[in-house]
Amino acid sequence: MIHISILVPETAVMEAIADPRYLFTSANEFLKSFGKAPLFEVELVGHRQEIQLMNGLATIHPNKTLDEIDKTDLIFIPAISGNLREAIEVNQVYLPWIITQRQKGAEVASLCLGAFLLASTGLLDGKKCSTHWLSASEFREMFPKVELIDGSIISDEKGIYSSGGANSYWSLLLYLLEKYTSRDIAILASKFFAVDIDRDSQSKFMMFKGQRNHNDEAIQKVQDFIEVNIEEKMTVDELAEFVLLGRRSFERRFKAATNNSVIEYIQRVKIESAKRSLETSRKNVTEVMFDVGYTDTKAFRDLFKKITGLTPIEYRNKYNNMSLEVRDELI
After folding, report:
1. CATH: 2.60.40.10, 3.40.50.880, 3.10.20.30, 1.20.1070.10. Which one for 2-202?
2. pLDDT tens for residues 112-156?
3. Would you kindly state where each structural domain of the chain is located, as residue ranges?
């Protein structure tokens, strides 16, 4: 029997507690339907016997407290909400327990913003991790020793797992279910819960908001220029000259301030503008391409797909309600 401990930290997101419990208890029933014995013992584990969530609107009574679990096989750290630094502070009691269980051989999986708690243990230092794309900059600031993977749905670091934003944690749940059971059981679960079993990127959901949490006025000036002149073609040399910096110094300062190279930043700003246009206008893809300063159809299409995971027309058909009326035969 595989023992699963789903933690119930303060400020946890209820769905991120209920969903793994529902999946793995249901998996026992799926196994029975295949003529096999139940495999999972699933318990909610908290630091006390009653934990209030959703500002007191809901109360969870864990099956066990931390001191009652001597050994477990798989730990789920659910998403947390609110001020993430404060959430880590009020949940310090969980960190040594997670570390101890990992030392005893337990696997550990964080769901969405649960990665902040997992990273606080130090277990992710020098390893790759995924979390909600919206909190990526804050994560990098707080945990510089962890390699955050942009756009990734799942990371697997030899028994330490993490998932991307919001409901993308279902991909990790199914990934782990398949690992512990079989592909057939995972597929059955994906159909039962109506979840895409093989989705591996959250790129299509990401909104690029140029990193501004720095105090380099020259770089902020360049960011303003790029974002106002989306239709323009611009070079690194021109932008460096714009703020009276040498190219090497400019590139170094830009990377330090934004976590992007100059070229990457320009590309992401332009693609974000293209995404918004594809979502809200009747323009065809070629018009959108010209609006953001591209003239090479293949280059624009390839870059768009690299950043979003979809071609421009796939993106518009998915997110623009008018796309059923206006079909673009270009690109």
Report:
1. 3.40.50.880
2. 999 999 999 999 999 999 888 788 889 999 999 999 886 567 888
3. 2-202, 217-324
CATH domain 217-324 topology: Arc Repressor Mutant, subunit A (1.10.10)
Q: Is it the case that residue 319 has pLDDT exceeding 90?
A: no
User: Average pLDDT in the 307-331 region?
Assistant: 67
Instruction: Map the chain to HEC letters.
Output: CEEEEEECCCCECCHHHHHHHHHHHHHHHHHHHCCCCCCEEEEEEECCCCEEECCCCEEECCCEEHHHCCCCCEEEECCECCCHHHHHHHCCCHHHHHHHHHHCCCEEEECHHHHHHHHHCCCCCCCEECCCHHHHHHHHHHCCCCEECCCECEEECCCEEEECCHHHHHHHHHHHHHHHCCHHHHHHHHHHHCCCCCCCECHHHCCCCCCCCCCCHHHHHHHHHHHHCCCCCCCHHHHHHHCCCCHHHHHHHHHHHHCCCHHHHHHHHHHHHHHHHHHHCCCCHHHHHHHCCCCCHHHHHHHHHHHHCCCHHHHHHHHCHHHHCCCCCCC
